[in-house]
Amino acid sequence: MNDNPSQAARVAVAWTIVGIPLVYGLANAVKAAAQLFTG
Q: Which superkingdom does the taxonomy of this entry point to (predicted)?
């Protein structure tokens, strides 16, 4: 793996850009599924 700090920062930013909407979507899906099963 490359030890370049610049590349590590790019990877961290990319995962943040992808991760925030992913976590938001998963949280909404879990909330909707809980409503289906609890009535």
A: Bacteria
